[in-house]
Design brief:
The chain crosses the membrane at residues 15-36. By secondary structure, the protein is an all-alpha fold. It is 95% helix and 0% strand.
């Protein structure tokens, strides 16, 4: 029983971590896109 709870907690943690990484990657992508757009507009 304890093992089942442990596995569930680890699984939940992995899911949470994955969600955080995905969110961070999206934010980073948007930030890079915004920075590139800003520099491109600045160059023109």
């Amino acid at each position: 029983m304890v093992l089942c709870i442990n596995v569930f907690k680890i699984d939940e943690l992995t899911f949470l971590l994955r969600t955080v990484i995905i969110c961070f990657a999206i934010l980073l992508h948007l930030l890079i896109t915004f920075a590139l757009t800003k520099t491109n507009l600045h160059e023109q």
